[in-house]
Amino acid sequence: MTSEANWESPLFPKRYRGRVGVFALTVIHFFAGGAVLFVAALALIFGSAMSYDGILSLIGWPILALIVAVVSIIAAMVLGLPIRLIPSLRSWWRSHGTVTLIGAVLGFMTCVVVLATAPIVLVHDESGDYLARNPDEWALLAAWSIFSISVAHFVWPTRGARIA
Length: 164
Description:
This protein is mainly alpha-helical. It has one domain (14-152). It has helices at residues 17-48, 55-79, 81-85, 87-95, 97-116, 137-152; strands at 120-125, 128-133. The longest helix has 32 residues, at 17-48. It is elongated, with a radius of gyration of 20 Å. It starts with 16 loop residues before the first helix and ends in a 12-residue tail after the last helix.
């Protein structure tokens, strides 16, 4: 029986193992994180909407969520390049997975609170008057940025907190 450390195949030679592993993890984080961001953006958009105009909202809101998710995951990956490229920072990030879990939960919950506490204003449009939420854009951007960076570079905590 061969151990995992001695295992080698033509598609996955030992000399590329570290680089391929980081690249594969980046691709997985990109698509999985993008899917999580899409679902979260869609939930926040549907949850904070004050009016529904039929099929236009049903088509427009998922497209808006997709645009937000793609832009967010690309920005988070670019901002997180030092985490992936600097070995000492990468090892610290991987050993402190609790930071990503707390960042994701707090970022999403802060987005919910910012949208839930946003004042409701009357908007005058060419289609008529309607009510809309007016959230603090900077608070929402900060909360969404923390959430998206935590999701894009998510590492599951390896162990629980020790109780002395």
